[in-house]
Amino acid sequence: MKKSDTVKYISQRIGSTQQETELIFDSFVELLSEHLAKDNGYTLPKLGSFSTRIRESYETYNPHYNGIIKLPKKKVVRFSPSSTLKAYLNND
Amino acid sequence: MSKKSAKVSQSQLIEELSKKTGISKSNSQAFINRFIEFTLNTLNTKGKAAITNFGSFTIVEAKERTGVNPKTGKPLVIPAQKRISFTPFKALEKKVNKEFTHLQIELPDSKMKKNTHQDREKNNARNATDEIISEDTTKNKLSSSIYEEILLKDKTSTTRKQETLHEIDDSPSKDDIVEISRSNDLNAEKDVTATVDDSFIDGRSNLKEMGTKKPSHEGVEKDHIDNAGDNEPNYFQPLVESRLKKNNRIPIAFAVLIVAFFFSWFFFVRPNLSPSTITNEMENVLDEPTAFDNEQVLNNAVNNIQGFDVATETEVPPKIEQEVNASEHAVKKIKLDNKNIQTTANTYRISNGVWIYDIARKTYGNAKFWPLIFKENYAITTDPDLVYPNVSLNIPVLEGSTENPAISDYVHLAEAAFYVAKAYKNAGKDPQATAYFKAAKAYATKQ
Known about the structure:
The structure holds 2 protein chains of 2 kinds. Helix content of chain A is 45%, strand content 34%. Chain A is built from 3 helices and 5 strands. A 3-stranded antiparallel sheet of chain A has the order 1-2-5. In chain A, strands 3-4 form a two-stranded antiparallel sheet. The longest helix of chain A has 20 residues, at 18-37. The relative contact order of chain A is 0.12. Chain B is mainly α. Chain B contains 16 helices and 8 strands. In chain B, a hairpin with a 6-residue loop joins strand 4 and strand 5 (75-78). The interface between A and B is large, with 65 and 80 residues.
């Protein structure tokens, strides 16, 4: 799924030009990622909710170093789908 | 330290978008709705959907499995399901993890890449063995023990360069510049930059100290051994390969020995003799000249046997006038048995798998008399080569000795050889059959 496809689809429905929708698209995605960087979660209706979680440091075996490595703390994005979407998929 | 992320409402998103781009709120709402709609459509139709610079959604199918009902403890069938998984792209990951990018992987040895001021001082001072070990109070005992070993050994190396394992964005990225230029909302800018600066001070200061070393590619470096001093041994030797090589030698040697043993046994130790292969020897034996007195018997025998032709195989048995003699012989045999003259064993009890040839050799002293045994004990339908007697045999007694057999012995031997030849022919072994026909003739004519 390419950006151009989305832009086409949306521009037809909304009634704006593709260049405009492209700009809107970019700004929208930036907005979403910024909010996540600030640890703000949000939901997109019918799709699901996005949030951040902190994954603590843990130890794992690395075969290259032939020993146990301690991985550092990390913040990751978490997505949980909405119930409507789940139902739609499973009942389909 | 799991602080829950604050939530931003839909309306707030719409507001911000409209502010950023300059379009009306209704338009931005419509945009968002269409945006979501398109992603869902592609998900349903293709099973995958991606948003550039953000992430991708994929449908994952989970198989049916049997679980357990936690309340009752009974098995429970969990049906097959479809699930959605979201994988963020690297741009997003970087943004989200900016706080922790300066953290690095801790390796299990003295080459720990600690980037902070304090650690560097400790390492240089060389008084820090105890302190470093106490820091490493992890649950894993292995790592700490390795650490101790290596530190105690390694006291001479002083050079400790630092390496980066994560890529550290020292320069502002293009995206940041674009953001700042586009966004009209000053508050948003400030928030972003503020968070970045506050958390990144330590990292930046260390970067200056490190010097002009280029940041390596993302992930774990592979050439970490470059920093090792010459005195330090290489701890990451491929131990597994050497062990395998050593272990392979021993079983291979054993296998070779066993093969050699079987080879030698098979070809040298096992007796490779069968009556059919000894016909040549027999012929050689028969060529030896012997003297006999009674010519009449010889002539009679010759006359009787001259009748049959080997080529056409008219199986006329050699007529022997001395049928009386034969019976006498039989009687004599029995008598001899009772009298127990000469042979020690008239019946021979055999173990499995002994050739009649060998028995003849053992009893008579010469193996050429084996047809007598065969004729005495076996039907003409048996194959002489395949006879492995494991019961007692009746062994006819020779009238003469093995070294000077009597004429009647030869006569009987001729009969027996003829018998053996017929047996071979019945078995389908024609070369052996012809050989024994010839032998019979030779025995008869010899006298």
